[in-house]
Amino acid sequence: MGTWPAPDLDTIGTSEEVQIITRRQDDTLSRPTTIWIVRVGDDLYVRSGFGATNPWYRRAIARPTGRIRAGGLDRAVSFDVADPSVRSTIDAAYRAKYHRYPSNILGPMVADDAASAALRLRPTDND
């Protein structure tokens, strides 16, 4: 697992929404789930707005490889639980990127439930 190529990082990090594709228990790919994404430095993060019980999040934790689609790109990724020490930085990134959304939409993304269900996406060689 490596680091994001700069063009991919820029394209995915500036996308309004991305599609996350996780693996089911039988190792087949799930249907895409559309979610928000933020860039923090050279890392990409997603959160489950409904917390750790959301099905896509549970699949990502159980089988931590899948795919991401954004801005015309389709990339293999690993899902790593985000380090809790970057929570405030991720919160700030969500607030900055999605500030135009009302608080009833943005608020859950920076609340405790979503923050505890944050994943860092890393590119893999499994294309």
Automatic annotation (TrEMBL):
A Pfam family it matches: DUF2255
Domain of life: Bacteria
InterPro entries linked to this entry: UCP028498 (IPR016888)
Protein name stated in the entry: DUF2255 domain-containing protein
Organism of this sequence: Kibdelosporangium aridum
Taxonomic path: Bacteria, Bacillati, Actinomycetota, Actinomycetes, Pseudonocardiales
